[in-house]
Design a protein that fits this description.
alpha+beta, 4 domains
Amino acid sequence: MKKSHGFMIAGLLVVGVGFAGWQVAGPKAAGAKAPVAQPELRAAAVTVTPAVRGPVVETAMVTGTLVARSEVLVGPEIEGLRIVELLAEEGDWVEKGAVLMRLSRETIDAQIAQSDAELARSDAAIAQARSQISQAEASASYAEADLARSQTLLKTGASTQAIVDQKQSSVRVTRAQVQAAIDFERAAQAQRKSVEAQRRELQVRLSRTQVRTPEAGIVARRNARLGAVALSIGEPMFRVIANGEIELEAEAPEARLGAIKPGQSAQIILADSERTSGVVRLVSPEVDRTTRLGRVRISLAKSQSARIGSFARAEIEIRRSQSLLAPASAVNYSSDGANVLIAEGGAVRKLNVVLGVVDNGHAEIREGLKEGDNVIVRAGAFLRDGDAIAPVQQSKQTEAPAGKAETRR
């Protein structure tokens, strides 16, 4: 019995030693590997470009219709005469005073001939009156001399009072004849003046048979028809664009109307896509209460394609300045407003900015950014304020030359 207990104790010791040896040598026996060192994180490479100053042009776009700056309506000043000749077509350039059409003049010519005859009769009556005045004055002179002789003879007793009275009566009669002849001449002169006035009126009517334009310009429309009777009522016979000056009558929103001023330059795009220059001539002081639009008149430079009544649009130059520019793709928008990300000391820095004009791939930065700041060209939603970055300058081929970028709105 004592021997068997000793054998069991010895066996336990062997098992215990074996277990202890498994614990020490266990990991190697299971084939476990040593831990691998983690690699260091690299900063993200981003493209940056410096904020530079360049020209900024702010424009306002307006649309409207081409109209004549001043339209001259030409019609007959006398009525009831037939149109016998037309001398101008639509589109013709006419000088000031040019004859556009002629009316029949036979009736007026006959009236002028009649007035000429009346003038001749008046001249004859005037000549007759003057002859009568001469005869009456001669008779009056003789009667006065005869009266003087009779009065002398009366003093010597060689004549009587009755003879003197008779001579005095003769003097009064001859004087009355002189006055009558003078009055007759005055009446003949007045008659002649009346005939002359009528003749002048006929001459004016005759001149009006030639319908002339009061201003030089382009004939926009001709309503006259050969053989028709000229009337002053209804549509005018001709419409002339005074001096060929055409304007764009456009409408602008009231929010932009205050920035548009007379004298500002503009680029007008016609219906056929031709571009021509212009200048703002007038800004209406009134805004339509229904549409909230105000009228703007823009004078056009000479253009063969400009046609009144056609549609056109214009870009009015509101402001031109040298401003700080950044790529439009660098601008982000949030509830706080616009912002850009710049590279500063190998990290991202967020700057809130005040924008001006944004167009043509560039944004005008009025506040919040300094010239030379390295702006991250495309930040998007991948970068945050404080992120580590590796800035890469934008290549010269894609970088906008300083002072060359032109931004429009």
